[in-house]
Design a protein that fits this description.
Blueprint (H helix, E strand, L loop, with lengths): L1 E4 L1 H5 L8 H18 L4 E5 H8 L4 H11 L4 E3 L3 H12 L5 H13 L3 E3 L3 H8 L6 E3 L1 H8 L6
Parallel strand pairs: 1-2, 1-4, 2-3, 4-5
Helix pairs in contact: 2-8, 5-6
């Protein structure tokens, strides 16, 4: 299974861990990294994602995030075709340009799922006819990997 994680997934571990929801999402993301290390899934990235990760101002945070990102199996280059697809997604929704670009890159890679912790994005994406399922990492683990035992 091909999985695309957006920037907020890579950065989730730096959010307020006093919130149960955030802790559960971090646990799910760490489980996804373990599944990748076991070669049970393939991780996909993109030029769009690298651009966003490079804009993390805190050097230590950016360094840790790139340690996690550097293991991706495939990186989708930003191209005219996925730019066009991102524009189409934007025209039919209120999805921001960067999120539309993530979806377009995930689709181009043939990813089965694109994971995000952005609940508004998940809701908006569910209203569109996309070639990739957009979902929360915790829901992904529960749906595809035998429940919440991660």
């Amino acid at each position: 299974m091909k999985v695309y994680l957006d920037c907020c997934c890579y950065c989730r571990q730096f959010d307020d861990l006093s919130q149960e929801q955030v802790r559960a999402e971090v646990k799910a993301i760490l489980a996804i990294f373990r599944l990748h290390a076991q070669e049970s899934i393939s991780l996909v990235g993109s030029d769009v994602l690298v651009f966003e990760l490079n804009n993390i101002s805190d050097f230590d945070k950016r360094s840790q995030v790139f340690n996690d990102y550097n293991g991706v199996d495939e990186t989708v280059e930003l191209s005219d075709s996925n730019r066009l697809r991102a524009n189409q997604i934007q025209e039919h929704s209120n999805i921001r340009a960067s999120d539309s670009a993530h979806i377009a890159c995930a689709e181009e890679a043939g990813a089965d799922v694109m994971l995000t912790t952005d609940y508004k994005l998940i809701k908006m994406a569910s209203r569109l006819d996309l070639e990739v399922e957009v979902m929360n990492p915790r829901d992904y683990i529960e749906q595809y990997w035998s429940g919440g035992d991660f």
